Prior knowledge:
The complex is a heterotrimer. Chain A is of the alpha+beta class. Chain A has six helices and seven strands. Helix content of chain A is 36%, strand content 29%. Chain B is globular and about 60 Å long.
Amino acid sequence: MSTEATPLPKEFLNWQVALRLFTMTDRNGAPHIGVVPTVTVKRPGAHLGVIQHSIVCGLLPHPRLLESKTNEFRSLYEENIEEGARAVYDVGIQYLLDYYDSSDDFDPGTITSLVPEDCALVDALKAEPKCTLSFNVFATEDPQTIGAPRCQQLDCDVEILSEGPVYDNVWWHNTLFHGMADEHVVLRFKHQRSWDTRFGGIQALRG
Amino acid sequence: MSAAPVENLAPELALEARRLHVRHPGVDRDVLRDASLKVRAGEILALVGPNGSGKSTLIRALGRDLETRKGDVLVEGDPLSTYPRRRLARRVARLPQDPQTPEGLTVEALVECGRHPHVGAFGRLGPRDQAIVAEALEAVEIADYRTRPLEMLSGGERRRAWIAMAIAQEPRVLLLDEPTSALDLRHQFELLDLLVRLNRERGTTIVLSIHDLEHAAHVADRVAVLSRGRVYDVGPPERVLNEETLLDVFRVESRITEEEGGLTMRILGPGDPIRNF
Amino acid sequence: MNALVWQVRSRAELLFEQPMAWTVVTGLALIAAGALATAQGAVDLSLLQLPASILDVDHPFHGVIWDVRLPRVACGALVGLDLALAGALLQTTVRNPLADPGILGVTAGAGVGALMVILFFPGHGEWVPWAGFLGAVSTIAVLLGLAASKDGQTGALRIVLSGVALQALLFALISLMTYVYADRAPAFTAYVVGSLNGLGWTDVQRMIPPTILGGLAVIAYRRTLNLLLLDDSAASGVGVPVVQARLGAAVVAALLTAAAVSAAGLIGFVGLVVPNAIRLVVGPEHGALLPATALGGAALVIFADLIARTALSPLELPVGALLSMVGGPYFLYLLWKKLP
């Protein structure tokens, strides 16, 4: 089943890009709560009929840039790995400072995540490849850079990938910072529609 | 007569691990994930890292005590796979972490085992071999115990007997897996001093894994920090053992000051890593 | 216990400067046992008359001595030597003092091989030791496969249990064959228990080649055997091809076991008692252990056979039964000491 993705709200994407740049400059890459959504998936027999997991998610480069970005991740790793994992990490951070520049560089409808093959979330998604991603940020340290508190809910169709260009991109991105992962799969969340609520509410209606 | 083989030219790198992926038999996950390390000839290199980081595994892989799934180990520039057993044993000697000693084996008999790579299955131990055995016993200072069964020795003395066996192999490289574990403080220092002496007097390259970071800083020319199966960083102790590394890898907050003769580390408590490593 | 043994040993070392001294001691024991055994029996001689009876063709007991007694004693010596060495080799191979060809089922395996030839190729007695060898080697292969563990150290319990299981299986096979061929049964009962009765110079001749082969192998590889005492990691660290070496030692043990079994049947416990006893005073170093073990084993079997022949005279007990009565309790004692 291969549905087309509906573009994410532009403002959400801009927010994600700004947030990620912030984590590189100010947090040395440590994920901010704004990139750790909760995934809700239906599962028969579960309490209330659903299970929920938190995942760290990423953005996928725009299709025109996908292959070159993957190659850049890969060469950064290969060139520096013999100096040690810390060297690779630091080089990766430096690279990402330019990577998160504009939301136009990213696929408008996709969110990605790398998870172990062998977990309840993947099992539930194999049975029912749809989910809701909930982003909840209630407090911000730096409203100038990353804006006001917000909650965002995105309904998505999910693809589970173990190979291919999308897998490679996410895998090499992860490898730069966490080393080579084995027995992991990439979840590709294709946005279908969003339910957008924010504190201070009216903006939701402003499209 | 043809010219003598070029074997004697000391290469710059005693050992090199290149992109090693190692897993223990029967286990699904890699213990070492893409680990690379260069060991320079004549140096003392200490491997440090938390439990499960792969220190033991890396040392064992360097000595061909473990199979590597991917990647290469080079000994003096040549791949491990090209070394026949005894030739490797003449270059590299191992001290395993907890060697089992058979009952009744004497110190002397154990150290004589170290001559096997030179003497072979059928050879006799000649006067030169006996001299090397005696000298190895002297070097570790247990010559007085030569006829004593190993189980009659204390832990530290037994460890030294095993080191004497390794020395008797006349190796260029000594690989020691946690040689100071289970020893009391004084014996830890004596053992480290012994290793430094071996390095200075004989030029033996020494690679050891060790828990205590201050000891590592004190004894090593370079330190390699391992974390989760990868080499996090490698270099001189003053550069590598810093507060950031302790936070990222060991997850403790610390205050480290450089003083004459070494580093002083004060561990302040648990901390949050800087890098989401 | 260890401290006491060490005291005894250090005093013994004062008296006996070299471990070789124990070889001399066991050698003397062998000569004494041999002399006694040749002299005593259904027909009794005094020791003074012994040389004359052997050398003087006209001596009244010359025939008995030469045709019955001497070959029996010689066989006993070879059987004891072979089994004791086999036991020592197996103990080194599995790195466990509880190993012995009998316990591990190797003698039973050799017995199956030997019986097959005796039953199906009765005219070819000279094949018996080699068929026994095949049986013993197969048993060892299965045993090492069953009992091997990942770190190269075979646990005491595991090896013993695997051996017991194999032994049960093989004995069942032997019982089946004995039952089906009951018409030839009388020979088997003695064979299964182990006896030196009726052995002659041909049997001695048949035992000599494998014994010499095994003995030479053992002498040549004694240094490697010492190295096998270390765990696999340490031994391979000094360049020993551990797997091949252990297999080689096991194969030689099979050869020696087969040689003994082909002549005397399923004698057990020699390989357990003698090496452990000698190791207690000499230590595990094979250059000293093996000669003393070989001579001690020979002496033990000769002496046991002497008692078996004379204790309940004129009834002759099979020597295997006597050795089991001594060896069984000793095995239990070792088991109790070694297992947690």
